[in-house]
Amino acid sequence: MKFLITLSATFAAGIAFAAPRLSSEERFKQRLARRASGTHDITPTQPTANDVNGPDGGAADSSNNWAGFVIKSVPDGTQFTTVSATLQVPLLTNANNSNKYSGSMWVGIDGDTCQSAILQTGIDYTEQGESVSYNAWYEFYPDYAHDIRGISLSAGDIVNLTVVASSATSGTTYITNESTGQSASTSITSSSSLCQENAEWILEDYTKDDELVPFAYFTNVTFPEAEACTSGGNSYGPSAGEEIDIFQKGEQWTTAKVSGNSITISCYV
Which residues of 74-108 are buried (b: 16+ CB within 10 A; e: fewer)? Predict the structure, then answer.
């Protein structure tokens, strides 16, 4: 399969880590608490009057912080072992505002219908005035998320993200900035078990200190070559999943569309 060839050819081991990013653990716990209370902060809400048409013409799910696509159960009845995508680092459009705006793009296994663990890797971005910063990270909850050093990111860079679950409690994350040639891999374990039933490609307005961070506006963002592979030897694209769009303050903020294995997310705000 193509993604396995890419991993063996381009990813390199050995990276340095920053201190744990506490906000990631906080926002994951807050997601779980909101899900249990029925407010669906991370889990897509049930179809409502705000929902829009999904890729099959049916209703798309709405969320106050997720946009993208989620496969909620494994089509061949086995387990997801790998989720990957290529993304383009977004150009942010808040430059004339002195406030701070943030967001995140990532791929992951579990974290939707499976609440026990999530294996994910992605990039965060923050803009304040004319200052823009990007950083790469990985997480295997209940451990904190960790920043990945040695990966520089700029708007327009092409970045490949992959998570591989070798078992329910162990996995590897891979990131390559194809524009710079920088790459890193990290093998990690967790005290909680994955269900390996969800595959996700997500743009997130994440939570910190019980509040959604101000959402960073952007030009269209894309996840080309999005793919999820199973222990049954099959691969599936995002069209096998469900569309999720962000609604906040009674308004639709994003629209996610899929064409083949490519996801495009548009921002309205």
Answer: beeeebbbbbbbbbbbbebebeeeeeebbbbbbbb
Strands 61-63 and 242-248 come out as parallel
- So which residues are the catalytic ones? 204
Number of neighbouring beta carbons within 10 Å of residue 268: 11
The mean pLDDT value of the chain amounts to 78
- Give me 79's structure tokens: 């387990």
Read off the amino acid at residue 137.
W
* Beta-carbon count within 10 A of 44 CB: 20
Residue type, 236: Y
Task: Say if residues 140 and 171 touch (Cβ distance below 8 Å).
Answer: yes
Q: What is 99-137 written as a DSSP string?
A: SEEEEEEEEEE-SSS--S--EEEEEEEEEETTEEEEEEE
User: Do the strands 221-223 and 262-267 form a parallel or antiparallel pair, or are they unpaired?
Assistant: antiparallel
Lowest mean pLDDT among 21-30, 34-43, 110-119, 224-233: 34-43
Position 231, amino acid: S
Specify the pLDDT at position 19.
29
